[in-house]
Automatic annotation (TrEMBL):
Keywords on record: Aminopeptidase, Cytoplasm, Hydrolase, Metal-binding, Protease
Binding-site residues, substrate: H194, H302
Residue ranges occupied by any Peptidase M24 domain in the UniProt entry: 126-335
Protein name (Swiss-Prot/TrEMBL): Methionine aminopeptidase 2
The species this protein was found in: Morchella conica CCBAS932
Amino acid sequence: MGSMETTAAELEQKLKVSEEKNKEEVPSSGQAADEDSGDEDEVDAAPAGATGAAKKKKKKKKPKKKTKTGATAQSNPPRVPIDQLFPNGSFPVGEECDYRDENLKRKTDEEKRHLDRMNNDFLTEYRKGSEIHRQVRQWAQKTVKPGMTLTQIAEGIEDSVRALVGHDGLTEGDSLLGGMGFPCGLSINNCAAHYSPNAGNKMVLHQEDVMKVDFGVHVNGRIVDSAFTMTFDPVYDNLLAAVKDATNTGIREAGIDVRMCDIGAAIQEVMESYEVEIGGQTHQVKPIRNLNGHNINQFQIHGGKSVPIVKGGDQTKMEEGETFAIETFGSTGKGYVRDDLETSHYAKNLDAPNVSLRLSSAKNILNIIQKNFGTLPFCRRYLDRLGQDKYLLGLNNLVASGIVEAYPPLCDIKGSYTAQFEHTILLRPTVKEVISRGDDY
């Protein structure tokens, strides 16, 4: 193949044409900055003298709404499973508090740090349950209003917990994997605890009511127990402030090797420093002396140790690795509760006696309880939900036989008002973690 010679003039002309072409094709630095700015609706202007139509930039898809953890936002009402919001399985850590005095060195002790790292599964289950509790209760705080029935409120909370944990509890054994740690308590005014509506309950929440909302979330039997009080009249603000302060005092005092009597004395001192004026009468806020916090074991809401909220002589100590529900109750009444009203809460005893049951209905309902709740507390609505009916005679027989424990509502004198706040804490080897702490309380 032969070659073609090019003159110097022709070569210079070709180079000029090539440079002008390159200038048209390369965007200016201003245009490049616009493209990188991320403005969704901006359109590039056509350059002067352009022969082709200017093309609009493609709109970038708006990112999905994020929570502060970077996950997709929860629905209203809460129905998005928590595992979808935290696909990496890493859930928010609770409030970590250093131990006091000689226990402060635990935070840097390498052996304790190693023990702490071995608790990953345990901590993940508790943190998952706590995040579910936070999301559901914060929805309830925004949604619950006077005029709603207690049944609507309880079922709204319980259905949300089941949806978020990913177990609806309708198939045999599903409730044992995760769900409600115990029934949603909605105790009004002088009733302090353990009230949940049974089927047919028509009770309505009123503007002047003081309602304790106490519910638990469990993941593999790791129960997060946390409660708060709702009011709609500022007249009760000091009552709520007293109890919240007392609960936070109990949390602050709690720790490894701390005696129960010391915690109770600190709680009582703070609680009784508050007064509340209701209806022209001034009341000192009294701790309800026969209600306590408690330790929590796997699948066992009351583990055997009590955390008093008044001073006393209990020398029992908290120990490393234990989980506690620190809860306090304040009252404008006598500061003492008794069984009252219709029972809704039940639980199979951990050490239930081996009794020969004669009633077929008792045998049937015990089988249902064992397969669906084990030793987790349940209520009559949960049995209704599983399609059980005409079970009350058999259930009462189980209570009389000592196999199942009944937990009636606990009430102070009529006309009084009671409030409650509660958190679950983990006594980890290195720090104390208030696992259920949130922005709300």
